[in-house]
# Entry
Amino acid sequence: MTKNSWFDTHDWNTVQHDIYATTTRQVERALGNTRRTLDDFKALISPAAQAYLEPMAQLSHQLTQKRFGKTIQLYAPLYLSNECQNICTYCAFSLDNRISRKTLTVNEIMQEADALKALGYDHVLLVTGEANQTVGVPYLKNAIRLLRPYFAHISMEVQPLDQPDYEELMAEGLNTVLVYQETYHQETYKVHHPKGKKSNFLYRLETPDRLGRAGIHKIGLGALLGLEDWRTDSFFTAAHLQYLERTYWQTRYSISFPRLRPIDLLQNDTITSKSFERCMSDRDLVQLICAYRLVNEEVELSMSTRETPHFRDHALKLGITSLSAGSKTNPGGYAVEPQSLEQFEISDERSPDEMVAVIRQQGYEPVWKDWDKTLMGI
Ligand code: SF4
# Structure
């Protein structure tokens, strides 16, 4: 076990107490500041700030347009495998779930790629479970090599790897890695990740450092909102982001907001009634999106099809910069085996074309390529 200095600086209970003890005066001060700090973030995600959602939303909208213009980036996940050696209490692919397991062959990867290209995608997110024998670095390297000619931007959400592994995959064309801590509360993390390599909290926590040292283009962070108190977990995510931005300043960053919904919890008897109290309402999620934008004008904010059409349409103008659409969360879901079990149920089933129409209706331009690559002329 190694020490991670930024993490040790913050004590969970103290942070949680501070957030819930925030006064309206502290919220108003945070709103009035032009350069906002982590303390301001604490105030903006507090229950006291719920009364200020309207001004927060207006500010978030303005700041997002100033930095990103009226654009929404579109991407799609490509699930390569549902094999997994970990037990995670909230996931359909967990080792203890008796489901039929599948890893895409070379031909199947290409069929899925063709289907995504036909839908218009130029940015693909490769997803696997953690099964190093079947979907280890050689498999991922081959997949990236196959897909590189077809996609302008390749992201990956797979098991945490060592720095040399990332360097090897970047040489093949990997641009972005998403690695969500799930929860920054060590004890709760243990409860939800009892078996497999993922049970190593610190190895996961230090993954963005290994990526930063490897010089990756972009890192995506997030917590699975609802495993613990979402406000405290979000503070830790913001503190992690701040540390990484200062340390690996050449890397870009994005934040995602996967949240557990009551429906997810009802299907899982290992989750207790306490978990229901931790669920976020739509209002809470709006507050969180705006709070991130108010403290960080540069960070990309991403939203998946886990959220409902109604919420996603509304969130478009709040500060979100990137959306998935028409997603399939099962390996082979686009063309090879559309009926297999999905990792999680999606709420927004609209096709990419329908999503593009919604984006345009709201006065935004859909972007199929990752815009910073275009601007950088890579
Ligand atoms: S969340 Fe990831 S690591 Fe955990 S069971 Fe699901 S696929 Fe495996």
Q: What stands out?
A: The mean pLDDT is 91. Residues 230-247 form the longest helix (18 residues). The chain has 18 helices and nine strands. The longest strand covers residues 71-79.
